[in-house]
Structures are given as C-alpha cells and as structure tokens.
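dude i think i finally got it to work??
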Amino acid sequence: MKPIPGSPPEKPAKNRFFAILALLAAGVAGLAAFTDDLGKLGKGAHDLCQFAKVCAGDPLPTPILARHDSPKMGGGHNQNEQCEPLRAKYASENPGFNIAVQSWEDNDKDSFGHVTYHYHCRYVATPK
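look at this
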C-alpha cells in the first residue's frame, strides 16, 4: 500500500505488538476475576441448596477413635466381650458413621501352664 501524501507516517509494528500484549493481559485478568466471581456464586448456590434441603450437606469430619487394649486376664473371656462395649459407645456418639472393630489377641503361658490373654481392639469409622 502506498502512503497517502500529507498523511502521518505509519506507526511501527512494535506498537501493534504491545497493544496485542496489553489486550491479552487484560483478558487474562478479566477471566481470573470472572472465575473468582463464579466460585463465590457457586458457594452461594450450594449454601442455598443446603438450606432448602435439596442437596447433600457438607460431609462430617471422620472421627478419630481411640483403640482399646485390655489388661492381661485369665481364660473365659473373648474379643467381642472386650471390644463391643466401646464400639457401641462410639456408634451412639457418632450416628452418621458405621463403626467397625478389628480385634486380635495375644497370650502368654507361664511355667505352671497358666495362660493369660491380652485383647486388642481398633475402631474404624466410615460415613453411612
């Protein structure tokens, strides 16, 4: 293209590059602001949904349940006897969770042949 006589000279291509770069930066900043607003809008919609009891609530934090180790005891006892009372207590305290018990025992035999047992119980909570 021929320049028109009496018109100002064309601006260098360098200015066009900076203009495009500025537009891209503004677009990225606008997109970031828009997605931040979407996050706030999404949280508000989720809160409204929970208030209306249409959607599920936020999950409860999983409880950390202490284990139980029995004292050493003679025969006639069992793992269920030692572990079940605390499992039932944890279940009543955490109604939103199933409480499972993992139990095991170890034993010792003295020189007279008398056996003592030691029971161990570990409890695990899983959401219902």
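The two ends are 75 Å apart (CA to CA).
im so relieved honestly
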